[in-house]
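TEACHING EXERCISE
Course module: macromolecular assemblies
Task: Read the component lines below, then compare them to the predicted structure of the full complex.
Student: A.B.
Group: 4
Components provided:
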Amino acid sequence: MTTIAGEPVPRHGVRIFAIWLVLTAIAVPLIVLVLGPHLPPPHMTVESVDQRNANIVMTALLVPIALLVLVYFIYSFVFFRETTDAIVDGPPIKGHAGAQLLWIVLTSTIVLALAVWGSYTLIAGAHGAGGGQGPDPAAKPTGYQHALPVQVIGQQWEWTFRYPTYGGIETRDLAIPEHTLVAFHVTSLDVTHSFWAYELGVKADAVPGVDNIAYVNPRHTGLFQIRCAELCGLWHGHMSKKGRILASSAFQAWISAAQKKNASIVKYLPKYSRVYYPAPLRRAG
Amino acid sequence: MSAATVDAVEQPDILARNIRVGSRIWAASQAFFFLAFFFAFLYLRALNTSGMWRGWPHHHPSPSIAFGVAILVCVLGSAAIARSAALVAPEMWRATEWAALALALAAVGLQCAQFSSLGFGPTDAAYASVFVGWSGLFTVFLLGMCYWLATVIGDVTRASGTPVVRAAAVEGAGFVLLVLAGVEIAAFILLYVVK
Amino acid sequence: MSATPIAAQPPVWRRLIGFNMLTGLALGIGGWFLGAWIGGQMAVGHPYLQGTDQNDVGIYMGYLFAVIGWLVGLGFANYPIGRLLGRAPSLRHHETGSWTRYFRLCTDHKVVGIQYLFGVGIFFFIGGLNAMLMRTELLRPVEQAWPASQYLTLVSLHGTMMIMMTSAFILGPFGNYFVPIMIGARRMAFPRIEALTFWLVPAAGLILLSAIAFGGIATGWTGYAPLADEGRAGMDAYVMSFILIAISLTLVGLNLMATILTMRAPGMSWTRLPIFVWSVLATSILMALAAPVLVASMTMVLMDRAANTSFFVASVGGSQYLYENLFWFFGHPEVYILALPGFGIVLEILPVFARKPLWGYRLAVAGMLGVTLLSFMVWQHHLFVSGMNAGLRPFYMLTTELISIPTGFIFLNAIGTLWRARIRFTVPMLFALAFFFNFLIGGLSGIFLSDVPSDVTTHGSYFVMAHFHYTIVGGLVFAFFGAVYYWLPKMLGFELNETLGKIHFWLFFVFFNLTFFPLFAAGFLDMPRRVSTYAPHLQTLNIFVSASAYVIGLSMLIFIANLIWSLVFVRQPAAENPWVSRGLEWQVPTPVPIENFDRIPVITSGPYEYGVPNAPPVADFAPGALPAAGR
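Instructor-supplied answer key:
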């Protein structure tokens, strides 16, 4: 195999490395300090903060990789271009075992580190990261037994919510108390939807016949956006509404009022269940 | 390009090798096709959504096991004969290919007969769906095999093909049938025994 | 029938009613009515078909008979019948003849390649037009240009058509045309199957388009099942065309794999195989194994719709997870069916215009085969928040991130090849280099999606949409145009205008990035995919994206103008080897003769020996000592 070194040529490698080092030294602090706080999602819950941190770390790690490749390419366009019209062959270098080995070791290290770190934040740090974990969550936060269960029911094309610990009432608005672990039990009555509460950092598919659990730990009060993130038919884009994180007392007041309002109709609702099986729906719009 | 080279387009030895390689790939494609039904069976059975895997509480679809055994025997016999024709007795291929074709056609016929007296339909929940889908599509693939065997016989009886190509076709058809027989064994165990 | 020799010159009307596209179309339409009638008769008296307002059996039978009619009209029945009767019809008369052979069954791999180029190209432009119409709707955050149902149909048609057609975007035209030439063969392993794979494509495309007349498709290209079960008759068109295209892809894979395995010329060892052929081989493996699973899952949807089975109906024991698993078990290899040929094209183009050997040839091969293997083990990363197998998420996170290692090899190959090279910025080289820029962004954004905490935010948002457009448009489509500018002089025999080519490239490259990079931000700002209404504060962003998308459309018009200008008006004959490439495909005469080589050449050297002192010519084209036949 031909080696690269051994000819009186400019030290391209050193130059490229130097340019890359300067750019990286500028870019990474900018990403962490300037761009980072604006990366999604907003910091309303413990889970969304973890997700934002994941986004910051990955951006800070991946931008230098992108810079390395880009700096190399642009450098090569400037210095390795053919300036004449003639077709001249370059040096017949077919490979370099050391460079290949270095590349494999480097990329493997980065990738394995990412996978280990991702798994750690998923399981230990972020207790499920706000994603739907199915009926039997693999990563449970501490005190999950005492989480406030809130059932999220998707149907074409509306979200409704049931509070089994408050008499199984069903509401059209979602409110959850702050500083309380909430377990969303997401299910669907017809087709697949996906419950997406952007500011909470929650996304869980609503699948018919499945109780999909996602945990969330609200940090402070405020409004959040609810959307459907899985195409569910004609008015998919209209399955959006605002939810609220309330202070504990305000939540108690709200749920009492809702219970009162629901008192006369709650007996007509189907009994609270983790999943519902309405008759199969055929040929809707 | 002279006419002579144009005529030499399908050289027997290349064609034979192509048939050999092509039949392996085709068998693999078929295996992956039925892998989907294999997976569907095990997955739906494990999930047992709404407790409806086997059907309505008082109506569990049960296909006739006699038909099942008969179909299995026909398919296995057809594959064994077609395969052994290639391996053991290549000089007997006329008889063996006829026998393999007859058995494969018998399996198709038996499957049709079973469908006409099934006692349940595709609407009877998940097991019935997998049963109808798997057996039905298997029969379609088996019909395709029957066509292949018939072309081999067509070549044999009219002696128009070259011997090396004919041998490759016999061998390739035998191999694909063998894989189909493997699928049928899995289908029999899952659809009739495990349920 | 087909064994009868063609009469010398029959009158025109007689030639029109032979086995050709017109006959196919006529029999196809006739078949539709026959099938629909038969299906209607079949459905009578079956209780499980009652209680529904449409007879899907009739629709499917209509499509089935239409396809059969189309194929019979094209003459595909002649060979099977001939074989049953013990005849072995010759391939010969399918391959000679005038321009009309482009409009009928022709088993010459070069004709099929050009048929593919134009057939797939037409559907690519229809799919692109759909994208323009979608961007028009998204100019305002409320419904304005199209009703919601039509918008969804546009989304679904765009996605389905692009995925279906771009699956064969490179293997169809360039795989069929160049693989036999590059390995020193006269034809493909199965020329009739090759013709069949192409003629299924227009059938699938027309059936898919017929969905517009049957109530549209409301599911997007993924066709998630409970929604697909309840959709209008347009879903039947989706299912049927996807089955057809998947059969076509399976057979393309089978044919190309068999060709590469058995038809290589003597001396064409595995280490001399052009890297494009390696990428085609890797892609064929994926096609032959993954596409049948799609046929099976689509068949299950078909049965759910036509026979009321319950594969995907939860209340009757089915599960939507079954569909998601089966679909993505096909769907993720499909992503690499799209990406791998692109890798092959750019690595094929790079050494020619860098005037250097391909750096790290073995690493490139290992990368492609590694991607092939790993791509079967990552599918559940599409389902991180579905609630399925949550305990397995770290495993799929790991495999998904592992796949970036072999993909990274391709970048290292490019880096090594450009090292101290003599780069010439021709149009194909520009497209190949742009591929690396786009795929870099596409690939790195994929790392965000592979990380579960990050994916919770980005799943199902415009971030995903931007990511896969960066890999598929930025990767595959750029590689496709690189291949078009690189190989079209050989395929069609005329030079393309370089200035128009460069204008096309720069408009496409700049406005592609201006279109899709902002969409990462749209995804980060919680814009879900496939909506016609969105948050009002995203309107400025969307107007910007739409305006850029229109310029992409304009750049495509410039490409068409270039084609028409160069092929119809200027007609400057191309040199036999305009790029001074060492590739075997450039050493044959320029209208490539009907069987490519007088004698099967003996390969004497690798295709990338640029600058190697005393490198032998790539092949010996008149191996006198050897017989004309053979490998």
